[in-house]
Amino acid sequence: MIVQTIPIPQALTLHPLPLSSSSFSPFGNVIANPSPSSTPQTTTVSSIAADPLLRSHGAISANQGTAIQYKQLGAHGLRNLYDQAPSGKVASGRITMFVCAARAEISTSPGAASKEEKEEAGRAKNSIPITILERHPFTTQTFIPLTANAKKQYLVVVAPSAPPGNPDAALPAPERNQNHLLPGRGLPDVAKLRAFIATGEQAVTYGAGTWHAPMVALGPAGTTVDFVVVQFANDVAVEDCQEVVLEGREEEGIRIEVGLPPRMEVARL
Ligand SMILES: NC(=O)N[C@@H](O)C(=O)O
């Protein structure tokens, strides 16, 4: 539900970076195969012991040696903090699906964009407006694209919380998380918005309370990116989802948008 309207102080164009675990760590987790070159056939107790990457992701040999199981995929696992929700209403785990229409397309061909491509991108105004941010204060939310295709892409737009103050004082938000990973109860700090380009080989978990824009699928017109979404909810609107409208002044060009590059290298973890 909409809880606030924030005036956009000045025009802002975000330049998205390839999504990676390290750049996204203040906001949540990137989930991807930590070591695509490792196969179940060649991964043994001793090869795991010798490989810091496998060890740091908690790799074990599973399914009678026919699988690798990674048990540690980031600090923001599934979190249910509804025991701190003022309504006291218990939450349940939910699995839903978002079928997201592609809203723009960028090329994934490696290499720098040519002068002509940059000019063309400028002319096409290849940008996505950001007009709303939302957070799920008491739960993590994981978006898992139903494709393992690096050519499928989506935009992840997130903001840290501003220091707490009057405007957010009445909003339900948790105070404690076992790993102290909460972003804080404040409204989004729009000047510090960040944008990332994710691929179909990456899933993303927003940490509990992380401000984020509604998912933006990328790709040719008429296509979709389908996501399985895993979170908790208790059906109390203000505890499940708090939305903030970002109010620009179109006539003065005061808006927030993500500028899409004509070409972008896609990154692994
Ligand atoms: N992220 C996104 O697209 N949507 C949500 O977080 C939602 O719960 O609606």
Automatic annotation (TrEMBL):
Keywords: Hydrolase, Lyase, Purine metabolism. It catalyses: (S)-ureidoglycolate = urea + glyoxylate. GO terms for biological process: allantoin catabolic process; purine nucleobase metabolic process. InterPro entries: RmlC_Cupin_sf, UAH_cupin, Ureidogly_lyase, Ureidoglycolate_lyase_dom_sf. GO terms for molecular function: ureidoglycolate hydrolase activity; ureidoglycolate lyase activity. Gene3D superfamilies: Ureidoglycolate hydrolase. PANTHER family: UREIDOGLYCOLATE HYDROLASE, UREIDOGLYCOLATE LYASE. Homodimer. This is Ureidoglycolate hydrolase. It comes from Pseudomassariella vexata.
